[in-house]
Specification:
seven-stranded mixed β-sheet; 15 helices; 11 strands; 40% helix; binds pyridoxal-5'-phosphate
Length: 492
């Protein structure tokens, strides 16, 4: 059969010349460096109206390739005005999603290599670097030894904490079903007798219910366990009651998801007390520390992880507070064989001698998709460039700024401090004022453009959240936030 590429009537596919790639590559890095240097000049939150970005784009793709300069120019014209600037030093919303220069450069290398690390054999460095980096990270956080690759466990990078929870749920269901995987999610998905059940606190992340639904347990199989009214941490006695009630009703408890640093207020579930309950009932314990896990890099904050030796799996997001750009979730299991057994499917086209020898890890069996990016590169660049000291300094800066802000709130009788620390989040309410007044205050503060805060509800009341964690955030930015809040309260 004729090879089309050798047919003189078939135009060759265009390639960007190496010198052009260098030139435009430098231009893109310059553009990012300029963006970071000037990000503070933008309003933190995009003011784009719905449809504004789409309306600035042509309805159809170009038939002829365009000049690269034209593409770059449209970043400023179309994209930037439609951005909320997560790297802005006044970004205090949600949780941080910080990145850094080493992370971006590591990701650039990953993009350039374009390798697909689904199997060890498809790029050994992609797997082995990831294993080593995850072991390094386990050391830095002082995680239990059973999560290291030289034990029965090991770590893997997932795209997000939500995926980590899903994978933990699938492994837990596999274990609870005695490996009878096909029974899960069919006749047993109603929360009725014989069905599997999943436990988290009323403060657990929405990804836990989503995982239960995807895994076939269904929302009716999810139990939201009561929390302590002051700390908002899961009550181990309430967990025990829920487990016993389900067992008595013939249901099959599969997994408990405890949280270190809940999304709403950074409450810390008492893992050291929850762990023994899980062990007694033979239930998988997954610990979700999506945001707060980064804090364990500081020895003085490791008490927040007490009891982790009870966990079957654990995750945190370096893409939140550890200077590694989205997406990067670090997920560890204590029993990698059980995880692999739950997720492996081996088609003929992936068979290879080294997998069959059992001498290597194939990370495709540790996640939902088959394919995987070389994400370990950006984490490797970050860990090496900052070193443990640099990373600790970053976390401590966020904690210190948040503590300063909490002091201002505490000292002002127009506000009630709801929760503060030990991480970088402060939650507070406008004292004795209706929710609408607090909502208006938040709108007013954010409309200024120099800061962005978001909100939650605690005990039914509208509560403001200020989360510090950006690498460019200094005391003056937190002070600006406080000034704006204080002025808005005076005007309320
Ligand atoms: N779990 C907790 C406690 C979180 O706070 C979050 C997000 O803020 C998540 C899970 C979801 O994280 P991801 O976006 O990595 O899925």
């Amino acid at each position: 059969m004729a090879d089309d590429t050798e047919n003189p009537t078939t135009p060759a596919a265009p390639q960007m010349a190496a010198d052009d790639f260098r030139r435009y590559g430098h231009a893109v890095v310059d553009w990012i460096a300029d963006y970071w240097q000037t990000v503070e000049q933008h309003p933190v939150q995009s003011t784009a109206a719905p449809g504004a970005v789409a309306g600035a784009l042509p309805a159809a793709p170009p038939e002829q390739g365009e000049q690269f300069d034209a593409i770059l120019a449209d970043l400023d014209r179309v994209v930037v005005p439609g951005l909320t600037h997560w790297q802005h030093p006044g970004f205090f919303g949600y949780f941080p999603a910080n990145t850094s220069a080493p992370s971006v450069l590591g990701d650039l290398v990953s993009a350039g290599l374009g390798v697909q690390g689904m199997l060890w054999a498809t790029s050994p460095a992609c797997t082995e670097l990831e294993t080593v980096v995850m072991d390094w990270l386990a050391q830095l956080l002082d995680l239990p030894k059973r999560f290291r690759s030289d034990s029965a466990g090991g770590g893997v990078i997932q795209d997000s904490a939500s995926s980590a929870t899903l994978v933990a749920t699938l492994a837990a269901l596999h274990r609870a079903s005695g490996g009878d995987w096909r029974a899960v999610g069919t006749a047993t998905s109603t929360g009725a007798a014989g069905g599997y059940t999943v436990y988290t606190s009323t403060q657990g992340h929405s990804s836990i219910e989503k995982a239960a639904r995807i895994a076939g347990v269904g929302a009716r199989g999810v139990r939201l366990v009561d929390v302590d009214p002051v700390t908002l941490a899961m009550r181990p006695d309430a967990l025990r009651t829920a487990l016993a009630a389900d067992l008595a009703a013939g249901r099959r408890p599969a997994i408990v998801v405890a949280t270190i640093g809940t999304t709403s207020t950074t409450a810390i579930d008492p893992v050291a007390e929850i762990g023994p309950v899980c062990a007694e009932y033979g239930v998988w314990l997954h610990v979700d520390a999506a945001y707060a896990g980064a804090a364990a890099i500081c020895p003085e904050l490791r008490w927040t992880h007490a009891g982790l030796e009870w966990a079957n799996s654990y995750c945190f997001d370096p893409h939140k507070w550890l200077l590694t750009g989205f997406d990067c979730d670090a997920f560890w299991v204590a029993d990698r064989a059980g995880l692999v057994e739950a997720l492996t499917v081996m088609p003929e086209y992936l068979r290879n001698a080294v997998t069959e020898s059992g001498a290597v890890l194939d990370y495709r069996d540790w996640q939902v998709p088959l394919g995987r990016r070389f994400r370990a590169l950006k984490l490797w660049f970050v860990l090496r460039w900052y070193g443990a000291e640099g990373l600790r300094a970053h976390v401590r800066a966020g904690v210190t700024h948040a503590a300063w802000f909490a002091d201002q709130v505490r000292a002002d009788d127009r506000f009630d401090l709801v929760t503060a620390g030990p991480f970088g989040l402060v939650c507070f309410q406008l004292r004795d004022r209706p929710d609408e007044v607090a909502e208006a205050l938040l709108r007013r503060v954010n409309a200024d453009g120099r800061v962005l805060l978001t909100h939650t509800r605690v005990a039914g009341r509208f509560t403001l959240r200020l989360a510090v964690g950006g690498p460019r955030t200094e005391r003056r930015h937190v002070a600006t936030a406080w000034q704006l809040i204080s002025d808005a309260a005076a005007a309320s």
